[in-house]
Amino acid sequence: MTSIGIYGSLGRMGQAIAAVAPELNAKVAGGADAQDDPATIAARADVLIDFSAPQALEAHLAAARAAGKPIVVGTTGLSPQHHALIDEAAKDIAVLQTGNTSLGIGLLQRLVREAAAQLGPDWDIEIVEMHHRHKVDAPSGTALMLGKAAAAGMGTTLAEAEVTDRAGTVGARASGTIGLASLRGGSVVGDHSVVFATQGERIELTHRADDRAIFAHGAVKAALWLAGKPAGRYSMDQVLGG
Ligand SMILES: NC(=O)C1=CN([C@@H]2O[C@H](COP(=O)(O)OP(=O)(O)OC[C@H]3O[C@@H](n4cnc5c(N)ncnc54)[C@H](OP(=O)(O)O)[C@@H]3O)[C@@H](O)[C@H]2O)C=CC1
Ligand SMILES: O=C(O)C1=N[C@H](C(=O)O)C[C@H](O)C1
Q1: Helix crossing, 57-67 with 80-89: angle to 10°?
Q2: Quick check: 72 and 223 in contact, CB under 8 A?
Q3: 9 labelled binding-site residue
Q4: 164 among the known binding-site residues?
Q5: For residues 192-216, average pLDDT
Q6: ipTM (interface pTM)
Q7: pLDDT band at 182, cuts 50/70/90?
Q8: Sheet-wide strand order for 178-184
Q9: Which residues contact 98 (CB under 8 A, 6 or more apart)?
Q10: Using CA of residue 35, residue 40, residue 44, residue 47, what is the dihedral sign?
Q11: pLDDT score recorded for residue 233
Q12: 150 CA to middle of ligand 1, Å?
């Protein structure tokens, strides 16, 4: 039975992962949180899952690399520097990074890309996400993934197209942009809508997560899939066969 080590084990996702692992025939070898040495669990587990905080990523990747263990990174709020660290680690170990491990978001990404490509430049694209009051990063990792999918469909990049800071007299909407808006409140697990709007009509594609178990299932499936893979950077699409 494959054993999993969890970084961020006492958090909301860490606990959800420990709860679903036995259903998927995986064993939890243990976990590590802010006060623990990440090397200890890296030595004991077959594969690692990180749902902690961006500031911990470098140490977690280093521990995984030193122990030669694959790692699934679900932590969001990552900077370009964090992505460079992941690319570097992926030279020596298998690393799968994703802002969303659910089944539905994988499909939504493909639908958004296709819709953006088919609808063309006369359709404005806006992304709205809502999460619980404890979430610390914005826009969500998933909103950024959906933004990248929309940008790819439009033939551009999210860095070129994104607008995240509308306040005051910002002027009329610029064509070819993608707006991202973040709502925070209560216990919302994770809602994402991509709105395509043109003169007189609107299409909305929405995913709502009701339970963290969906993310936990996806994370454990990804970990089981990653165990034994050669060094490299992998995506959730590969796990889901997309
Ligand atoms: N990819 C996906 O599908 C999903 C991603 N996420 C992302 O996962 C991350 C965690 O979310 P969530 O479980 O809700 O958050 P929580 O705040 O509930 O849990 C975070 C955990 O990480 C630990 N942690 C914080 N800093 C460090 C550190 N420096 N070293 C080691 N551990 C640390 C915390 O430990 P302590 O309390 O001791 O500080 C805590 O146990 C977020 O980035 C979130 O956006 C969430 C859901 C789905
Ligand atoms: O912090 C969360 O809770 C979530 N984070 C991920 C994100 O930033 O997209 C995924 C999910 O929506 C829940």
Answers
A1: 0
A2: yes
A3: yes
A4: no
A5: 98
A6: 0.98
A7: very high
A8: 162-163, 178-184, 124-131, 190-198, 201-209
A9: 72, 73, 74, 141, 145, 222, 235, 236
A10: positive
A11: 98
A12: 27
Q: State the average pLDDT over residues 86-90.
A: 98
Average pLDDT over residues 163-178: 97
Identify the active-site residue in 82, 131, 217, 221. Answer: 131
Q: Is 76 in the pocket of ligand 2 (CB under 6 A)?
A: yes
Pairwise CA distance, residues 28 & 18, whole Å: 6
Q: Domain 103-209 is in which class? A: alpha beta
Query: Looking at the predicted structure, is the pLDDT value of residue 242 above 60?
Result: no
Give CA–CA dist 229/223, Å, rounded.
Answer: 10
CATH code of the domain made up of 3-101+212-240? 3.40.50.720
Contact 167, 160 (CB under 8 A): no
Rg for the chain, CA atoms, rounded: 18
pLDDT (tens digit per residue) in 108-156 = 999 999 999 999 999 999 999 999 999 999 999 999 999 999 999 999 9
Among all bound ligands, the one having the nearest atom to the CA of 141 is: 2
Which of 60, 69, 82, 135 does the annotation list as catalytic?
A: 135
pLDDT value of position 240: 87
Pocket test for ligand 2, best of 76, 82, 127, 212 (most atoms within 8 A of CB): 76
Distances (CA, A) of 19 to 3, 131, 216: 14, 22, 8
CA dihedral 186, 193, 7, 212 (to 10 degrees): 60
Report the distance separating Cα 209 and Cα 216, nearest Å.
12
The model's pTM is 0.97
Domain boundaries, the chain: 3-101+212-240, 103-209
Q: What percent of the chain has pLDDT over 70?
A: 100
Q: How far is the CA of 200 from the centre of ligand 2 (A)?
A: 32
